[in-house]
Specification:
This protein is an alpha/beta fold. Helix content is about 30%, strand content about 30%.
Length: about 575
């Protein structure tokens, strides 16, 4: 990015900088917003500003405007009270969509700075970004301008030729290092159009991917949940690449995404501290073998790696910083041809009663029982000594056992499966069974969110709304629903404001349909699914259900004074 400012300043103003609500935003219009933010930055005392904005184009304008005035930008993943409090003693101003009590600022109507743009010096302290908190408390990480520029150059050198002039579409936030680089800085440097909105629902993502050549920025949490009933054919024609970062993408999830999107995801391995380290793209041939880079990771350009005596991975690169070799928390082994295989995290080994316990091994053993789709085992520092807690997503078999025989029975089956691996003293003492992992805007599951589930004082969270039957007939019912603010399904959906997930709306339609109309047959699909407006807590909505016994269908419609919210036709086995 050594010439980033020159590129931005000289790019033709009629060029499309991005898209907002389906309307093109020209580079000239985006530059005007950048000049407005620069004018604000030059008025602000101090040199540190916190920035939060959902709109990627406006965020990019504010970021560049801050750098024009040589302000260091601090990023957090959300605007929760704890995040704002952590920033309070660190920054001189809050910009964008922070809560009112922080006094957030934005450009005024007459702000239009017309001075000369100059590229910051390589050692300019451009950014402070917080780690995701997925393995502990979020930690601030400083980034120099040269580090960000070197990584953008490496990404273009590795992947740019295959992308061309593709739009950049994302399910991940730009408020962390992966989203910032891939969704903001890399497209700005290369002139690729940025979509202002993040696609939180697959129902809006699928059609958006089929309009123009594009790339998709996702995460394992998003890619593994892509619903098969949506029409992804347009996406398969238009996608030039699919990127995934923020965690390991399981091979089954990679294959699932590739089957729908026509592109095997390119996984990016790295961290907030190191920046990007390596990539892999697992393709499956006709014989079922895994191709391209397979399970091994290929270093990004300019990245060197080595193993210490204990097999821990160390990296050095211009974007990891100028301080030499950086020790990572992962163990690895040499896979030949300059590549490496990851073998789990160093911090996944804990000591219980002086015995070394591999949390990865326990998780693999739980999944191997067939009773768990996924599992996470964590060390919990109790008052007297450290113990283990297991968090499990039950499989269909596990869910049947849980619903039929109860939690104690499933606990016993899973504990028995682990008994051959560890002594009884090291078995998990606390068990929690979840439908899905709670995730944040980065698609990660913060450690604190899981540990909070162990709080015995934590009340049971509602899974259903407050419902009132308004009209009832043999084939039609009308209900009024009010969604409670503490609904379980609001966790991670989303950090800025709670939004009722689309899959929950469908589930409630099935639940109340079976309760009120007793339709026969198992679920076999859904057609004509539309989501027009978000449903938020505390706002009454009406749910109309129509059962067509001859066609084996249950039609649902959510609506309110604000208009239509969602509708669809659920198909049932005859």
């Amino acid at each position: 990015m050594r010439d980033l400012f020159q590129r931005l300043w000289s790019r033709p103003e009629e060029t499309v900088a991005g898209w907002r609500d389906g309307v093109a935003v020209t580079h000239g219009a985006w530059l005007a917003r950048t000049r407005a933010w620069a004018a604000l930055a030059l008025r602000v005392e101090g040199d540190r500003v916190a920035l939060y904005h959902d709109d990627s184009l406006e965020f990019a304008a504010a970021l560049i405007g801050a750098w024009v005035a040589r302000k260091t930008v601090w990023l957090v993943a959300d605007t929760l009270p704890a995040s704002c409090a952590a920033l309070g003693g660190q920054v001189d101003a809050f910009w964008g969509q922070f809560p009112a009590q922080t006094g957030p600022a934005g450009p005024g109507p007459g702000d239009d700075w017309r001075g000369e743009w100059s590229t910051p010096a390589p050692d300019f302290p451009a950014l402070v970004v917080y780690t995701s908190g997925s393995t502990g408390a979020p930690t601030p990480i400083a980034k120099r301008f040269s580090q960000l520029g070197a990584e953008v150059a490496a990404l273009e050198r590795q992947f740019g030729a295959a992308l061309g002039a593709a739009d950049v579409i994302a399910t991940v936030s730009h408020q962390h290092i992966y989203g910032l680089l891939f969704r903001i800085l890399w497209p700005l440097a290369e002139g690729r159009a940025i979509h202002a909105a993040r696609h939180e629902f697959p129902e809006t993502l699928a059609p958006a991917l089929g309009v123009r050549p594009c790339i998709l920025l996702g995460s394992p949490a998003h890619l593994k949940r892509l619903p098969v009933h949506l029409d992804w054919r347009g996406a398969a024609c238009m996608l030039r690449a699919v990127f995934s970062s923020g965690g390991m993408l399981e091979q089954g999830a990679s294959k699932h995404a590739a089957g729908l999107l026509g592109q095997a995801p390119t996984e990016i391995y790295g961290s907030s501290e190191s920046g990007g380290v390596a990539w892999r793209r697992r393709t499956t041939g006709e014989t079922g073998e895994t191709g391209e880079t397979g399970e091994a990771w290929t270093p990004l350009p300019e990245v060197r790696w080595r193993l210490d005596e204990a097999g821990a991975l160390e990296v050095a690169s211009p974007f990891a910083g100028p301080d030499g070799w950086l020790a990572l928390a992962d163990r690895a082994e040499d896979a030949g041809a300059g590549r490496f295989m990851l073998r789990g995290r160093n911090d996944r080994i804990v000591k219980i009663e002086e015995k070394r316990i591999s949390l990865d091994a326990l998780e693999r053993a739980l999944v191997a029982t067939g009773l768990a789709r996924e599992a996470r085992v964590l060390g919990v520092p109790d008052a007297a000594r450290q113990t283990l807690a297991a968090f499990v997503l039950p499989s269909a078999e596990g869910r049947a056992l849980l619903d039929g025989a109860g939690k104690a029975a499933l606990n016993a089956r899973l504990r028995a499966a682990l008994a051959g691996l560890v002594d009884a003293v090291a078995l998990p003492r606390r068990w929690r069974y979840l439908d899905e992992w709670p995730v944040n805007a980065q698609g990660k599951t913060p450690l604190a969110q899981l540990l909070a589930l162990l709080d015995e004082r934590r009340p049971q969270r509602p899974r259903l709304p407050a419902a009132r039957l308004l009209e009832a007939g043999p084939a039609r019912v009308l209900l009024e629903l009010v969604v409670p603010a503490d609904l379980l399904y609001f966790d991670g959906h989303f950090s800025v404001a709670p939004v009722l997930p689309g899959v929950v709306q469908v589930d409630w339609a099935i639940h109340y349909g079976r309760e009120q109309l007793a339709p026969a047959g198992a679920f076999r699909g859904i057609n004509a699914l539309k989501f027009q407006q978000m449903i938020r807590p505390g706002h009454p909505v009406l749910l109309e259900l129509l059962h067509d016994r001859a066609k084996g269908s249950l039609n649902f419609r959510y609506f309110s004074d604000a208009g239509a919210h969602a509708s669809g036709r659920i198909l049932l086995e005859s």
